[in-house]
Design goal:
Elements lengths: L1 H9 L3 H33 L4 H49 L3 H7 L1 H26 L1 H16 L1 H4 L2 H42 L1 H6 L3 H53 L5 H43 L20 E8 L9 E8 L4 E6 L5 H7 L8 E6 L2 E2 L5 H6 L1 E4 L8 E2 H5 L8 H10 L3 H6 L7 E2 L8 H13 L5 E5 L7 H14 L4 E5 L3 H4 L4 E6 L2 E6 L1 H7 L1 H19 L1
Parallel strand pairs: 3-10, 3-11, 6-9, 9-10
Antiparallel strand pairs: 1-2, 1-4, 4-5, 7-8, 11-12
Helix pairs in contact: 2-3, 2-6, 2-11, 3-5, 5-8, 5-11, 6-11, 8-10, 8-11, 10-11, 15-17, 20-21
């Protein structure tokens, strides 16, 4: 899986890849040839006193060394560029894939895990790609070439390799085998610590308000301690590798000098040949060490590749059908028939058999207790989730038979959690309509009752908005999100509890300003306050995912006990406030 992932992203770059292999081949052959020239200098130049040979072969060594350096630098440069390109492509593929996910897939994998996979996991694969170009091409050539050239110098002495190489390979293979589950655990623990940290940063005000710093510090320390323990275990295993390699290398050097000295003393070997043989032995062992270093990186990169591939192989539950229609504009005639939604593996549906219609120029309200399925119903209309059973039609078309682009461009959604992106007021509003003029943006802000505070901000439309809109209040965030939907001029407005942070006066002004701009659009409002929706043309009352009442405010007061309870509880609270 690991190398399939890498190969798939290297396929468009065959030219640079071939160039890297050629440069690495030339560099390695040059490195292997240098000890032979060195042996000739010693035997023919130094021993025989031939100064001309020393100068001639020495000059060739300098030329070959310079060529080897140039090829090595060029190969490393191209390898780095290609490895960075592979990482960039994998991150792009992950981002594009996650963009197609519905809330269901994001919830299954988890946002912290998706962040880790897009950053740390990609980095592991990227580093292995780089090391593969710089080591995996060189190591086998150097190992095989070194063995052949060492045997050319002295065959009996080469018998040492039959003992050395198996010992080195077996020792390091045992270490690498234990590393695989350890690295897998490390990656999962990185997910855990990212999840804890993300929650704590997002909920810092709640932690401070409830004096939970000590508890959260202990929670983070637990996750941090588990990750540290796993990394220490991996570090201890890795720390055994290099002493093992250097022990074998040093023992080999001693063995070569010991047995080589005896063969020189017996007249079976030249001094230069022993020097070259020792160089080749070192090159062989270094190539094995490079290969083992690669095998050391492969387990962690393999785990990362599995996690990356899991995301890439996840099929989104909400997709365009093959015969989806591309429709420029869907009108606001909305019909929901028997909509039911159940999460995979859940015993009971979140929403069950909901049916209603909404026409342009009308307001449909949705009310119910917490967890009754209000937001789920709203999310089914733009296909953020797909209904398990039932049909939803917009503009006379089944929403599953039109493209997601056509559907969502006809809907203006203001989510329950008002979210703004880092940028400016204008850039956030223009997410609803990228071609909106300044006049249209200001008109949308006027409708959303946000124009006054935007004018007071430094820069007006160019005022800075921090990530998540952290530099504006909750009510201001809601109004900016409403303006973002208004500037899109959609056929259907979906307000998912979008007025909860507004005071009654602002709420009333906003609803009054919305009426003229929504005359040709259907409006759906999820609300907790009866006062916000009592004048709606149709009110849906949900209870435990089921539609228990539908009608106007006056009709529901007479026919729906659940609605009566909601109204009574809120009126009692208002009376208590007034009496206070």
């Amino acid at each position: 899986m690991l190398y399939r992932l890498i190969a798939r992203n290297l396929a468009p770059h065959k030219g640079p890849l071939i160039m890297i292999v050629v440069l690495q081949f030339i560099s390695t052959i040059a490195t292997l040839y240098l000890p032979t020239l060195n042996a000739d200098i010693i035997d023919d130049g130094v021993v025989k006193g031939d100064i001309g040979t020393i100068y001639s072969l020495g000059m060739w060594m300098l030329i070959i060394t310079a060529g080897q350096v140039v090829c090595a630098i060029a190969a490393t440069f191209l390898s780095a560029r290609l490895a960075m390109g592979v990482g960039r492509q994998i991150r792009r593929d992950l981002f594009d894939k996650v963009e197609t996910f519905s809330a269901q897939e994001v919830g299954i994998i988890g946002a912290p895990s998706l962040i880790t996979r897009t950053t740390n996991d990609v980095q592991q694969v990227q580093m292995l790609t780089l090391m593969s170009f710089t080591m995996m091409v060189m190591a086998p050539i150097m190992c095989i070439g070194g063995i052949i050239l060492a045997m050319r110098q002295d065959v009996p002495l080469s018998g040492l390799l039959l003992v050395i190489l198996p010992v080195l390979i077996i020792a390091i293979a045992l270490i690498v085998r234990v590393l695989v589950p350890t690295f897998r655990k490390v990656q999962h623990q990185l997910d855990d610590i990212n999840g804890v940290l993300r929650e704590q940063i997002t909920g810092i005000s709640v932690i401070r308000a409830f004096v939970r710093r000590d508890y959260e510090a202990e929670r983070f320390a637990t996750a941090n301690g588990a990750l540290t323990a796993s990394q220490l275990r991996a570090g201890r295993l890795l720390s055994l590798m290099f002493p093992t390699i250097f022990f074998v290398v040093n023992v080999t050097s001693v063995g070569v000098l010991w047995f080589g000295g005896q063969r020189i003393d017996a007249g079976h070997m030249q001094i230069g040949a022993l020097t070259a043989f020792l160089s080749y032995i070192m090159q062989i062992l270094m190539s094995v060490m490079m290969a083992m270093f690669m095998f050391m990186m492969i387990p962690r990169a393999a785990v990362s590749a599995e996690r990356i591939q899991e995301v890439l192989d996840t099929e989104p539950s909400v997709v365009d059908t093959p015969d989806s229609l591309e429709i420029a504009h869907l009108d606001g005639h909305l019909r929901v028939q028997g909509a039911t939604f159940k999460y995979p593996g859940a015993q009971d549906p979140v929403l069950s058999g909901v049916s209603f219609t909404a026409a342009p120029g009308t307001m449909t309200a949705i009310i119910g207790s917490t967890g009754s399925g209000k937001s789920t119903l709203v999310n089914l209309i733009p296909r953020l989730l797909d209904s398990t059973v039932g049909e939803i039609h917009l503009g006379g078309h089944d929403i599953k038979n039109v493209t997601l682009t056509s559907l969502r461009s006809s809907i203006g959604l203001v989510p329950q959690k008002a979210y703004l992106f880092s940028g400016t007021v204008a850039s956030n509003i223009r997410m609803g309509n990228a071609n909106a003029t300044d006049e249209q943006v200001w008109a949308a802000l006027e409708v959303a009752q946000a124009a006054d505070f935007v004018r007071e901000m430094p820069g007006g439309l160019d005022a800075t908005i921090e990530q998540s809109g952290s530099n504006v209040s909750g009510g201001q965030r809601q109004r900016l999100c409403i303006a973002r939907a208004v500037v899109a001029n959609p056929s259907v407005y979906l307000f998912d509890d979008s007025f909860s942070a507004l005071d009654y006066a602002t709420d009333a002004k906003l609803r009054a300003a919305l009426k003229p701009v929504t005359t040709d659009a259907a409006v759906l409002v999820v609300a907790q306050r009866v006062g916000t929706i009592r004048h709606a043309d149709n009110i849906l009352v949900l209870d435990e995912g089921k539609l228990v009442g539908q009608g106007t405010h006056d009709q529901l007061l007479l026919t729906c006990p659940t609605y009566q309870e909601i109204v009574t509880s809120q009126m009692t609270e208002e009376e208590q406030e007034q009496s206070a």
